[in-house]
């Protein structure tokens, strides 16, 4: 084991979105052995900063489901894969023709800029994007769709994300990657972008072979990463498709499942 890659929400973090003392001790023990711990998350840097001190994160991180890599210590960006604006417009037009009442938001500029459609903030909560909805503002849809995006967010006031996701897939459109993270919206990245592709690029930069990577996850957006890593570990509460993608299943995030595996591997 030369690198630990871990999802955050529902995986490393407990149900209160905290890092438990046992988990922090396991992460520190790995780092003391020279093993970097890389958060691989749907979150943006603003959401990482909220827990970075508790988790001891100060190195590389993968945000927006692998769309870009940023160094939390010095702000360097290793890469950023954006969804072209033409693709965004085509996707939005087709989806809106099938489902009225959709709301969109776009993550830009290294995850620091969040451009939300008018009405989006009214149905958002702080936990959704680790941003206060009162700071989101609102713009006409055309402005949301007008520029490239690291991650396009699609949600509906009443429909479940899984229903939106199924409809999006049924349209037969190409040129993008869509997934679910457990958040109340569908997440769309540039074509081919997953947590696995982002992790592969980072590991190539660090000269670490995939066989030497242990990865943890619990949601649909973790499946590719768990399959790619030398050892993929799913949480006990993960959906069957996630557990099937993994080499082993650990305890839940409420039972320090990540820490248990790290402790065993280090021993």
Automatic annotation (TrEMBL):
Keyword check for Membrane: no
Cross-referenced CDD domains: HAD_Pase
Alphabetically sorted, this entry's keywords are: Hydrolase
Q: Which Gene3D superfamilies match?
A: 3.30.1240.10, HAD superfamily/HAD-like
MF terms (GO), sorted A to Z: hydrolase activity
Cross-referenced NCBIfam families? Cof-subfamily (TIGR00099), HAD-SF-IIB (TIGR01484)
**Per its record, how is this protein called by name?**
Cof-type HAD-IIB family hydrolase
Organism annotation: Microbacterium sufflavum
């Amino acid at each position: 084991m030369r690198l630990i890659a871990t999802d955050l929400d529902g995986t490393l973090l407990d149900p209160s979105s905290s890092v438990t003392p046992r988990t922090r001790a396991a992460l520190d023990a790995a780092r003391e052995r020279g093993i970097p711990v890389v958060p691989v998350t749907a979150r943006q840097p603003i959401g990482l900063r909220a827990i970075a001190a508790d988790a001891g994160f100060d190195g590389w991180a993968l945000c927006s489901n692998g769309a870009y890599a940023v160094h939390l210590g010095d702000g360097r960006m290793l890469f950023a894969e954006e969804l072209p604006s033409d693709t965004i417009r085509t996707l939005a037009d087709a989806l809106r023709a099938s489902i009225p009442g959709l709301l969109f938001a776009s993550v830009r500029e290294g995850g620091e800029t969040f451009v939300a459609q008018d009405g989006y903030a009214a149905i958002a909560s702080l936990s959704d994007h680790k941003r206060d909805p009162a700071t989101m503002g609102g713009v006409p849809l055309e402005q949301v769709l007008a520029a490239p995006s690291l991650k396009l967010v699609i949600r509906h006031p009443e429909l479940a994300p899984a229903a939106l996701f199924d409809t999006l897939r049924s349209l037969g459109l190409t040129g993008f990657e869509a997934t679910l993270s457990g958040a109340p919206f569908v997440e769309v990245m540039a074509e081919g972008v997953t947590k696995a592709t982002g992790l592969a690029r980072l590991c190539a930069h660090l000269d670490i072979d995939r066989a030497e990577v242990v990865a943890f996850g619990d949601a649909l957006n973790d499946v590719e990463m768990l399959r790619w890593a030398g050892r993929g570990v799913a949480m006990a509460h993960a959906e069957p498709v996630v557990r099937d993608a993994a080499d082993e299943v650990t305890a839940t995030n409420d039972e320090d499942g990540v820490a248990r595996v790290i402790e065993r591997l280090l021993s």
